[in-house]
Design a protein that fits this description.
This protein is an alpha/beta fold and 265 residues long. The protein contains eleven helices and seven strands.
Length: 265
């Protein structure tokens, strides 16, 4: 790591030392895992990782969160959050992410209070500020700490530092909740979330990492890394995919020829 990176890491460490005992909103992704690992090294029992366990979370992400927290050694709590009970969330308007984050942070704050903890930090990084993320406004309004942003750490820097620390999370694909697979304005249902999760898991088992299944009623639009499109289109593979998706009540199964693109929905 160069001098600039060392300086950023020292800034992060100073912040973590200055916080009162706190909770980390923990998804098991690259950023929150790095934040949890650094915080645990410095604060040990003064920091708790909490994961919002909701229908919007894939089983893969749920498993990742539990495994990585165990590898780090940090205390980890799964906090049940019923997002499907909130009309402002399931209506899936352009402000859905804002309402979703407010609801999640409220639940985490309530659970944190049970541990005598009053502050929550999340793993937003400097690059995230350049994207359309209404949830960041909710975090700011609720006083959620953003130590990675304060240290001016980018995603690439966090991945490099995570690799040096031997964190298994260093090279996992970017995560997003299952609700992002449903077009804005279309109501979010448990049925759709379950079948999206099942279909993406099936594609991963067939050897397609970093997939997205976009749900349009009875139509599934599949995104895979563009380098894998030819493999996807092989006849035997195609038939296996079609069969499985039809068992999940998709009538039409389409492959996006542009490949996976974050935020394409």
């Amino acid at each position: 790591m160069n001098h600039l990176k060392d300086e950023k890491l020292m800034t992060l460490q100073r912040q973590i030392r200055a916080y009162p005992p706190f909770v980390i909103a923990f998804s098991g992704g690259v950023d929150s895992s790095f934040l949890a690992a650094v915080s645990y090294q410095i604060r040990k029992g003064d920091v708790v990782a909490m994961t919002a366990d909701s229908p919007f979370m894939s089983q893969l992400d749920r498993d990742y969160a539990c495994k990585i927290a165990a590898d780090i050694g940090i205390q980890h709590e799964m906090v049940a959050v019923d997002l499907l009970g909130e009309p402002q969330i399931i209506h899936n308007s352009e402000t859905r992410c804002y309402h979703c984050k407010r609801f999640i942070f409220k639940a985490l704050k309530q659970r944190a209070a049970e541990f005598g903890l009053s502050r929550i930090a999340h793993g937003v990084n400097l690059d995230d500020l350049d994207e359309f993320r209404p949830g960041l406004r909710a975090a700011d309004e609720m006083g959620i700490l953003s130590p990675l942003v304060a240290a001016r750490l980018t995603k690439a820097e966090i991945r490099r530092a995570s690799k040096k620390m031997d964190l298994q999370s260093w090279n996992i694909p970017s995560q997003s909740c299952l609700a992002t697979r449903i077009p804005m304005g279309e109501p979010i249902t448990r049925k759709d979330l379950v079948r999206i999760d099942a279909c993406e898991a099936h594609l991963r088992r067939l050897g397609f990492p970093g997939v997205r299944v976009r749900c349009y009623g009875d139509t599934a639009r599949i995104e895979v890394p563009f380098q894998m499109i030819s493999q996807f289109a092989e006849d035997e593979m195609r038939q296996r995919i079609i069969h499985f998706f039809k068992t999940r009540h998709f009538k039409y199964i389409a492959l996006d020829l542009e490949g996976y693109q974050s935020g394409s929905l």
